[in-house]
Structures are given as structure tokens and as C-alpha cells.
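Practice problem 4.
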């Protein structure tokens, strides 16, 4: 149990189903429900489990309550089933419990030998505690109250108020939280936005409840003007600066102007202020994302269909049918739409030297995705681990993305649920897949980050906005007699402090051995030198691209492989089918005709052959999709070993020449970045037997297969969140 965690209910003699075709490999143990998670405690060793990523907060068989999508109870003898909600009654004794998880897992427990009343109580407890009625009932509050504050309500363990100016990170790299003006000042200086300033008119959230207390605005706009303007914007969300291009153009986001009488006047005033912030006084380009992109509801509907295809439908079908079904979800179509629109805005900022204003009705959904993608493409800083974390903090957490509602942590309304943050991570993964050497992090990092949405310990993904966190913190503190003192809010841990979840060894899986940073070290004549990477160092092969003609691949040249999981999008989406090439298409074509500078601008490849299924995230729990000793991880293993061996040899040369270590530590300390290490003996270490295409995850014990104990899973019931149950119970009305 972690601090603040208590056992709510438990039952012995429970069987966890491991395989669908036999019960011989099932595990026997105790099923426990706490106020944080479902835990299955067993002394049996999983015979098929060779490796699993270890999380310090969760055991091997644990599921956080916030990760639970649906709780289904079954009674085989009475041919009954029920989807359990909070505070519901259960009129039959369950023989089976099926847990559907938000991370695409399905876990099944059997109560054949357990006491019927005990089984019923633990099922009801899981349903109740997985659907809290109030934000303060989320486990993070109890965790923080017990771990960081003593019974007298005073802070313990030397916790630094307000996050200590950073959110921790991989190997101690501090991530700015943008909850103070100094973080914004540093970002302005880093990007050269000399005509922009930090504004503090929203301290104590007196102007807008959804904006941060500090944000950046044009120098030419006075605080008094901003206060007057704010009442005309939806949610009082006045325009916010996001980023500055070296050529002077800026990226700005804003909500819509709700007062039609004032709209033209305010638009002109805002555009003039942004224009004056540009050294060339360039025009401003406004992009209305509500008209340009799929709606939040469209994305949610596509995600429900995607989950159906990846989890529910039989995976034994032919590739052609599976790929056709995947295309019908429209998920990849939407991924491509967001990437394409972002690339077009990159053309405006970088090619035309024109500032861009992103407009969305509430400025809290689509703007988060597009502003982040544009910055990832344009600024290599945001392709480093620390930079990417600061980007999420800046454009999502502090900008008021509604994580509480969009993740549906309280299970209140399916209408507001939408996986926009996961869509963003998928878009970033597409870029990572196309430019593997341009990112410091790996797809494991992105997948673990998506999983962290469902661990209700970190403030990062727990609230709709900073103001909600402050308000709920004060209420909780008053109820628990916690003395906040001069602080405004409870101190919550940030997800960016990865040491709370993983050891330093496991965090090494976040580090990309192919990454080309701002500079790289080499040894010439025994001396360590640093050289800048330039365009001449690269060819198109580093982009992961095939041979191109004029920078684009002809559609007829693409022949998909059977198991490639690459989809053809509809013909009208092909760049080559457009009757007349637009300026942005010409810009993209010209860019692809030149070698890529991986420490500069990158643009997505947008043909149907380039937009792929993110297999590690969506298919990792499916045994049929797992490739033993195959997949991307096998290449990752060899490259990691090679990178570690190079570092080891460089350290030996430094020792031989008496050159001080670049990191000031021992040679062994410097070699800790790679998860897979080179052997000190001659020869390449063999590929570990436990490597699969699902690594570092394992599908064992997650029943995303055709049947559970012989019962088809393909019965997808109507409704966005009513997933499935067993066909033997199909006659029973939910």
C-alpha cells in the first residue's frame, strides 16, 4: 500500500484467467480492492511472463481505479450479466468479473471457489470506488495528504512549495511548470520574443478561471486594455502567446469573441498588436480550427471504433479485412488531418514569415493539439525530453485542457469524454516513426506517458485547469486541517518526476540511442572534440524514407506488405491528386527535396503509406499481434548496445589521454543512458529471449482475444462505453 491507500474489500480463492483456451495457466490468489487500485495477490509464478515493466506505484497485476472503463459481472448458471455502476445493487452472485480498461486491456477473474457473498462485495466495491462522485475522492488527494503532510497538517519530507520550480524528470532534468512568471520569462528569452511580456493580471484567477495566473501577451497591449477586452472572449480567454520563430513570427492562441458587435474591432486590435510584435511588421494569419478540423466528438467516435477494432474484434481475420475495418474508424484519417494542418501553419510561420493566431471557440481542445504539433515540428528543443515535457506543461496543463472531463475520471458524462491528448501523442509518434533520430525520447516514453493519464497521483492529468486544482486543494486542506501557510495549493507530485514510477534503469528505456542532439562528441587524435551537426551529415535515409522522386512518393509505387499495418487512405487525401498545388504543398515539396536537418525543422510525410497504426500503444495487449524476438525493439536493442559500446570506448580514450570526464562522473556513471548495455567481453551480447514487439509490456493475462472461456467477445453492445460481454448472456437486457 502506498501512503493514503486503504483496503476496502477483498476475497480469497480467486482465479485470474491467463489463457483463453485452457485454465491450466491461470493464477490463484486474493483479489483486493483499495481506494487506489484493484490488486491481485498471488504466490503463483506466471509461466508465460518473461518480462514486464515495473512501476513503483503498481504491482504486476494491479489496475488503477481511474483506468477502469467498465465493470461487468457474470453469472454462468443463471445466464445473467450486468454492467455495474456506482451505488448499484447486484441481485445475483457473480461467477466472473470482467474489467475493461482505458488502456485497452481486458482482465478476467473467476469466482468458482470463492465465497459468493465475498465475490459480490468486492465487485460492488470496485464499481463504486472506480466512479467517484467528486474530484476530492480521487486518490491523489489522500496520497498527497498522507505522504507530504503530517497529522498536524504541516509539510513533511522537505517538500518544496509550488513544485520547486520544476517537475523533476529523467535523470534529474528539471521541467518548468509555468506556474510562475520566471518560467515564462525564460521561455521568452529562449525563443527571442523581445516584443512580448509576461502578464500577471490573472493572479488569483480574477480575470479567467481557466487561464493560468501568468501568461505572455504583446508588449503593446496594456494590462488595462486586456482587462477590458477579456469580457468579450469566451471564458474570458484573451489571446495567449505560445512561441516565437527566429524570423520574428509568433504563434498565438485565443478563444472566439462572443460579442458580435465588438468582434471586428477586437480582431483588428489583437491583429495590430501581434503585427507590432513582429520585427518586419508582417501581416497576421488567423486559423479557425473549428472549421478546419474534426470536432472533439468526431475524435471520440473514432476512438470508440478504434478500441472496438483493436480489442473486441477477432484478430484472426485476414489483413485486408482488418485494415479495411481500421480505415473505417477514421482515426488515422484524423491523425493525418491534424498533422497536415500543422504542416500548413509551419509554412505560414517559417516560409511566409507571418504570425499565426489559432482560434477555437473555447481555446481548450483543438488549439492544444495544433499549437503543440507546430512547435514540435519547428523547434528541436521540444523534441528533447525536457523540452517536450515543458511543451505539454505549457500548452496543455497550464493552458486549461480539461483532463478531468476529457479523461472522464469521474465517469459523469460520456459526452465530454475525448482522447485529444492521446491523439496528440499519436501524431508525435508518427513524426518519431518518420524521423527516429530527431527525438531524444522513444515510443516507450510516449506510451508510458499515455498510461500515466490513468494514475491519479499526479496533478498533471488530474484537473481541468490550475484554478480548479487550487480551489479543490483549499477545500480538501480545510476538511483535513492541513495548514497551507503561504502556499495557495496542496503540493502534488508532477508526472515529470519519473523516479516516482520507475527506477533509473527502467527510465533508460526513454532514451533514444539514435538521437542527434545539438552537438555530438567525437575523438580525433585522442582529443575529445565537439562538432555541430549540419545538413551535409544527413541523407534521406535518415528520415526513414524510401527513394523519392521530387521529394514525394508516387501512390502507384507503394505496395503494402501483408503485415505492415499500413493503411491506404481515401484517394481524395492524396497530395498528388489535388488539381492544383497550393503554396503550402509547394513549400513542403521543396523541403523534402533537400536533406533533412534533424536539429531544425521537420515536416510530416502525409501519403497513406506514411500514416501507420501505433502498434505499441494500441496492440500491445493482443497476444496474436505479438512478435517474439521481432518488432522495432530488436533494432532498438542492437543500436543501444552499439551506442553504449561507443561511449565505453570514448571513456577509455579519455582515461588514456587523462582528459576529464565530460559529465564529471565515473565512466560507468556516464554509460547509464542506455537500457541495453554492451558487454565488456568481445562480441555482441545476444538478443534477450524476452524481447517481443510488445516490449516492455506483456499481453499475458490480458484477454483481448476471440473468447473468454469459449465465449465470443465480438458482441459489441450499442453505446460509446458499453463494450462487451459474453454471448451466452446475449438474451439478458442490460
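Answer key:
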Amino acid at each position: 500500500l502506498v501512503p493514503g491507500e486503504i483496503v476496502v474489500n477483498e476475497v480469497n480463492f480467486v482465479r485470474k484467467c491467463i489463457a483463453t483456451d485452457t485454465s491450466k495457466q491461470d493464477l490463484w490468489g486474493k483479489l483486493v480492492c483499495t481506494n487506489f487500485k484493484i490488486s491481485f495477490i498471488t504466490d503463483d509464478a506466471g509461466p508465460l511472463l518473461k518480462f514486464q515493466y515495473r512501476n513503483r506505484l503498481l504491482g504486476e497485476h494491479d489496475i488503477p481505479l481511474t483506468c477502469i472503463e467498465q465493470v461487468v459481472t457474470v453469472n454462468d448458471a443463471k445466464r445473467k450479466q450486468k454492467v455495474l455502476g456506482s451505488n448499484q445493487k447486484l441481485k445475483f452472485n457473480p461467477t466472473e468479473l470482467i474489467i475493461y480498461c482505458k488502456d485497452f486491456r481486458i482482465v478476467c477473474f473467476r469466482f468458482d471457489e470463492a465465497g459468493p457473498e465475498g465475490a459480490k462485495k468486492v465487485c460492488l466495491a470496485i464499481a463504486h470506488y472506480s466512479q467517484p462522485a467528486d474530484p476530492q475522492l480521487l486518490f491523489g488527494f489522500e496520497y498527497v495528504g498522507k505522504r507530504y503532510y503530517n497529522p498536524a497538517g504541516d509539510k513533511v519530507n522537505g517538500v518544496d512549495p509550488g513544485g520547486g520550480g520544476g517537475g523533476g524528470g529523467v535523470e534529474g532534468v528539471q521541467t518548468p511548470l509555468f506556474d510562475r512568471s520566471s518560467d515564462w520569462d525564460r521561455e521568452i528569452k529562449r525563443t527571442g520574443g523581445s516584443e512580448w511580456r509576461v502578464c500577471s493580471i490573472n493572479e488569483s484567477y480574477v480575470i479567467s478561471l481557466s487561464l493560468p495566473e501568468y501568461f505572455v501577451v504583446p508588449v503593446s497591449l496594456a494590462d488595462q486594455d486586456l482587462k477590458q477586452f477579456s469580457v468579450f472572449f469566451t471564458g474570458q480567454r484573451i489571446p495567449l502567446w505560445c512561441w516565437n520563430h527566429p524570423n520574428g513570427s509568433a504563434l498565438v492562441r485565443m478563444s472566439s469573441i462572443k460579442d458580435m458587435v465588438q468582434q471586428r474591432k477586437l480582431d483588428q486590435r489583437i491583429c495590430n498588436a501581434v503585427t507590432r510584435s513582429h520585427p518586419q511588421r508582417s501581416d497576421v494569419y488567423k486559423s479557425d480550427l473549428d472549421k478546419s478540423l474534426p470536432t472533439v466528438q468526431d475524435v471520440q467516435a473514432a476512438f470508440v471504433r478504434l478500441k472496438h477494432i483493436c480489442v473486441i474484434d477477432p484478430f484472426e481475420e485476414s489483413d485486408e479485412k482488418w485494415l479495411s475495418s481500421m480505415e473505417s474508424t477514421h482515426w488515422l484519417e484524423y491523425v493525418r488531418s491534424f498533422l497536415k494542418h500543422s504542416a500548413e501553419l509551419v509554412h505560414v510561420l517559417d516560409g511566409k514569415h507571418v504570425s499565426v493566431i489559432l482560434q477555437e471557440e473555447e481555446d481548450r481542445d483543438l488549439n492544444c493539439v495544433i499549437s503543440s504539433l507546430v512547435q514540435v515540428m519547428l523547434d528541436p528543443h521540444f523534441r528533447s525530453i525536457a523540452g517536450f515535457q515543458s511543451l505539454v506543461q505549457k500548452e496543455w496543463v497550464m493552458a486549461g485542457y480539461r483532463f478531468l472531463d476529457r479523461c472522464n475520471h469521474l465517469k459523469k458524462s460520456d459526452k465530454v469524454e475525448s482522447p485529444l491528448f492521446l491523439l496528440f501523442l499519436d501524431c508525435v509518434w508518427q513524426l518519431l516513426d518518420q524521423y527516429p533520430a530527431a527525438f531524444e525520447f522513444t515510443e516507450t516514453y510516449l506510451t508510458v506517458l499515455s498510461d500515466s493519464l490513468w494514475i491519479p497521483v499526479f496533478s498533471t492529468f488530474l484537473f481541468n485547469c490550475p484554478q480548479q486544482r487550487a480551489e479543490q486543494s483549499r477545500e480538501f486542506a480545510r476538511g483535513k486541517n492541513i495548514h497551507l501557510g503561504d502556499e495557495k495549493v496542496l503540493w502534488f507530485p508532477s508526472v515529470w518526476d519519473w523516479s516516482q514510477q520507475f527506477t533509473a534503469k527502467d527510465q533508460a528505456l526513454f532514451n533514444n540511442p539514435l538521437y542527434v542532439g545539438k552537438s555530438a562528441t567525437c575523438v580525433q587524435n585522442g582529443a575529445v572534440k565537439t562538432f555541430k551537426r549540419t545538413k551535409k551529415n544527413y541523407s534521406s535515409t535518415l528520415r526513414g524514407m524510401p527513394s523519392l522522386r521530387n521529394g514525394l512518393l508516387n501512390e502507384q509505387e507503394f505496395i503494402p506488405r501483408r503485415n505492415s499495418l499500413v493503411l491506404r487512405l481515401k484517394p481524395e487525401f492524396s497530395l498528388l491528386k489535388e488539381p492544383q498545388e497550393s503554396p503550402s504543398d509547394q513549400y513542403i515539396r521543396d523541403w523534402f527535396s533537400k536533406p533533412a536537418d534533424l536539429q531544425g525543422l521537420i515536416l510530416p510525410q502525409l501519403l497513406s503509406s506514411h500514416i501507420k497504426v501505433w502498434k505499441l500503444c494500441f496492440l500491445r495487449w493482443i497476444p496474436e499481434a505479438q512478435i517474439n524476438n521481432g518488432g522495432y525493439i530488436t533494432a532498438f536493442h542492437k543500436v543501444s548496445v552499439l551506442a553504449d559500446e561507443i561511449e565505453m570506448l570514448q571513456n577509455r580514450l579519455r582515461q588514456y589521454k587523462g582528459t576529464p570526464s565530460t559529465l564529471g562522473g565515473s565512466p560507468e556513471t556516464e554509460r547509464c543512458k542506455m537500457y541495453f548495455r554492451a558487454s565488456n567481453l568481445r562480441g555482441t551480447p545476444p538478443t534477450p529471449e524476452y524481447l517481443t514487439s510488445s516490449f516492455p509490456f506483456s499481453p499475458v493475462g490480458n484477454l483481448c482475444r476471440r473468447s473468454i472461456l469459449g465465449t465470443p467477445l465480438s458482441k459489441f453492445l450499442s453505446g460509446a462505453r458499453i463494450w462487451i460481454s459474453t454471448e451466452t448472456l446475449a438474451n439478458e437486457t442490460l
